[in-house]
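Good morning N.,

You mentioned wanting to compare the apo and holo forms, so I went ahead and generated the holo version with shikimate-3-phosphate. This is what I fed in:
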Amino acid sequence: MGTLDWRIRPSPPLSGQCQVPGDKSISHRALLFLALSQQGGRVTGLLESEDCLRTLAALRRLGASIDQLGPGDYQLAGWPDQGLVSPDEPLDMGNSGTGMRLLTGVLAGAGISATLSGDASLCRRPMGRVVNPLRMMGAAISADEGKPPLNIGAHPGLHGIDYVLPVASAQVKSALMLAGLFAEGETRLTEPGPSRDHSERMLNGLGAQVDVVSGRLVVQPGRPRGGDVAVPGDLSSAAFALAAAAARPGAQLRVEAVGVNPTRYGILRLLERMGARLQIENRREIGGEPVADINVEGAVLKAIRVGAEDVVLAVDEIPALLIAAAQAEGRTEIHGATELRVKESDRLAAMAEGLERLGLAVTTREDGLSVVGGRIQPAVVRSWGDHRIAMSLAMLAASAEAGEGVVIEDVANVATSFPEFPAHCRALGMNLEQSG
Ligand code: S3P
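and this is what came out, ligand included:
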């Protein structure tokens, strides 16, 4: 069976106005947090991508009552009177690391036995970072070599721990916070760096008690009351077009109603450091999250040096940043980015290969890579089955000045976060054809 591919022909600079679909991280959390809440609530603007629909399906299999009211609009009834039920078949979380890690926290907390599995990419990803601290809390979980499938068993009850996370990870932090809601005593978490804080914001908004005390996150036991959640546009999805427009003179782009949470907007600061002409306006709040409209005007950008302190605030946007780096003057260096090797693909290796095939000079190191900006050449490139690699290479391909275009192979995984991406690209003037 052939793969789904794109052919991108040289295209004019991006031009137009758009909105991006709902934030993936916030969508997963809205479903999980409302399902475990006492009274439930309604979520609007939910991202209906494959990853989030896996979380939704898993919750239904566990006995959560979720009714669809319209596109992206769902009513959740909250924790069932009889509690969640143990499923007799493994729950397939597909490609979703967030879905698997956060749901593990909920199931371990509630003491529900279940097996969580996923696709080949998810089954290669490290789960010890979630499983080990959950075991310290009293959970019964087994995982061969720390990889999925995860077998979660019943246990007499969890207790809070005081734990220092080995990596800055919102997924690990959130899984432990969720387990902490069901534990006896406080759960105290210290992170080595500032990962995204959507869980803290949403849990507090729904009535749970999560505070920062002397630099530590302190979770009080007790399930949240519930309430309504509105999901803002996903900055990680907007990042591809924002970076592409910023790096190409003549481009004019406006993205409306996109999340600009400071623990997520590292990409905007990095583009600004490269000389990008960004204007962030109409700042407002949606569901406890800062939101804004972003205007960008294309310019010739300059290379920068990106360090570990930048990567943590743009952990999913380094491939998008490389769209700009590949067109900037000079050598952009990325350091402190080893976490990218354990995402949906090894993103350092995948981007290095793609950039090289497109004609750019790339050097790789264990913790990062460097690329010298230059001209994009026609080529056949691989996505490595990773949505963010496919979308980054597509944006870069569009800025080739001449030639018969670039083929990007195996792009089906884009449906995990941004199913409308091809239509979004065409609306902004890109010449993108899909085949296979
Ligand atoms: C996410 C956290 C990040 C990010 C992922 C989504 C989340 O992972 O890469 O795409 O929703 O919590 P880590 O927290 O493991 O770095």
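Residues 25, 98, 169-171, 174, 195-196, 315-316, 339 surround shikimate-3-phosphate (CB under 6 Å).

Happy to go through it together on a call whenever suits you.

Best,
F.
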